[in-house]
């Protein structure tokens, strides 16, 4: 196998790895919540432990620290470059100590956003939860206008409006779906709280991107380093919050109180939970490292496509898990409101593609890119017209020569 074939195979393995890991991470997270085990008091209950899942997620991210390498000066460019073709800058490598300190603020935002999202997943299906994470588009656009004072092009506004419509449809389908306590389903009130939590989580994540742009813009470091340090700080901060949550009033599963000792006792009594937990840690690590590689060689269109089909793949996987066994309490049931949810998915994905310019609508203006395209079209038309005129003149001269002869 030649070098070119090996590179092509490596890229395909990265693409497949990221696609699988992005789906399995959410599926494992939801299945952990739906699994019962004997706890510290001897009773069986659901493993509804959002802080524990947050902790294991950051643990998986922290493994990226083992992939830290010193970036070359000539390769350096801003970590969060908005343009894939941005001119490479010449900067010396940033000391690891400075990087670790600067990453603390974004890691804190990541901790809050991921906890809110993890708590929301207790009460929402995996597919709906993933779809509502698209609210980050709405908040990103809002912060771009209010905080950065940017003027958004019309196609982005149009995309945001379509996303809002799609999410409203998904929300209605989610709240109208019947409650099924045998499947660990939540009440309408708890599902509404779940939607609110995941939405707030995406708002925090949108703020995180601003912190990262301000703090890490001039950093010369590999993506492995950034992800690894965020994982390290998140892992350490989670320990502090898990101790605080242990002493808060309430019961496990309400997002406030969480008995971490009970978490480990439940793991001890359930081999299934142990398997789910270690699989979750592994796929979080795989998702992050493949994400680092795929950014370097794939287009934005391709990455948007992966994120777009992710809710569908999660939905299909959870449906398969549920219906693979007659008495299964895991996965997700199909309801009559599933058709409306499917419509909402399609509308939301369409809005996402419009926002990201993956789909271009003829009645919207796309700035300099469209001007360039229009100029190319005009040039081609003029070229064809000139060729047509030249051909007509040649034919006319040929006819005149024949008449003279």
TrEMBL record:
Classification via InterPro entries: CRT-like (IPR013936), EmrE-like (IPR037185)
Entry annotated with the keyword Iron: no
Disordered: annotated span: 384-405
Keywords assigned: Membrane, Transmembrane, Transmembrane helix, Transport
GO cellular component terms, semicolon-separated: membrane
Transmembrane segments: 12-31, 51-68, 101-125, 131-148, 155-176, 188-207, 227-248, 268-287, 308-325, 337-355
Membrane topology note: Multi-pass membrane protein
Cell compartments where the protein resides: Membrane
Chief site of localization: membrane
Phosphoprotein keyword on record: no
Family membership noted in the UniProt record: Belongs to the CRT-like transporter family.
UniProt-recorded name of the protein: EamA domain-containing protein
The organism of origin for this protein: Anaeramoeba ignava (Anaerobic marine amoeba)
Lineage: Eukaryota, Metamonada, Anaeramoebidae, Anaeramoeba
